[in-house]
Design goal:
Order of helices and strands: HEEEEEEEEEEE
Shape: globular
Number of helices: 1
Oligomer: single chain
Distance between the termini: 60 Å
Strand order of the largest sheet: 1-2-3-4-7-8-9-10
Strand content: 35-45%
Number of strands: 11
């Protein structure tokens, strides 16, 4: 005896199998994502980070980080707009700088916007609206070898309310700035 399966039945069985496979992928993917914890995406533009005795830098960029897991993948553009004479970026001359990338996600970093002895030491802590990083900074001609390594932060909020204006971006040894910054999770 020969049986035939109608085209309608074959399509129904195929659709059911595809739906079951998609559901399984969705469940496995969701459990893997929740095990890793939610990542936060961020993007920013800081035109003139300054405040220390000498120097200024321009930073742009963004990336993603997981505060609970320590995951970070971030980077962007970097340029010294005025020669830096102190701190980890000392020696970066006006016009130098190409890019930066995150070397490590920091739980927090101490900072001062001006470097003045009278300025109160503050702390930037990584959370859903702030990312503190140890970053590598590169100049043209240095290839893949970092030229400088320094701490930095970007935030959606003012982290130095004792200083006029919004101070939501900072580079160690250079200072603070008002940045256009966006965070999403």
């Amino acid at each position: 005896m020969h049986t035939t399966i109608s085209l309608r039945t074959r399509r129904l069985v195929g659709a059911t199998a595809a739906f079951a496979a998609a559901g399984l992928i969705l469940v496995i993917g969701a459990s893997a994502a929740s095990a890793a914890g939610p990542n936060v995406g961020f993007g920013f533009n800081a035109r003139e980070i300054k405040g220390a005795p000498t120097g200024a830098v321009r930073l742009t960029g963004g990336g993603s980080f997981g505060a609970s897991t320590g995951f970070v993948h971030a980077g962007g553009g970097f340029s010294c707009t005025s020669s830096v004479g102190q701190g980890p970026l000392a020696g970066c001359q006006t016009g130098e700088g190409v890019r930066w990338d995150a070397a490590e996600l920091l739980p927090s970093t101490p900072f001062k916007c001006t470097g003045a002895a009278s300025e109160v030491l503050k702390t930037a802590s990584t959370d859903g609206e702030t990312v503190a990083l140890r970053s590598d900074f590169y100049r043209a001609g240095d290839g893949n070898d970092e030229s400088f390594t320094a701490n930095m932060f970007v935030s959606a909020k003012d982290l130095a309310p004792d200083i006029a204006g919004v101070q939501n971006a900072w580079v160690q040894g250079v200072g603070c700035a008002t940045a256009t910054a966006h965070f999403s999770s």
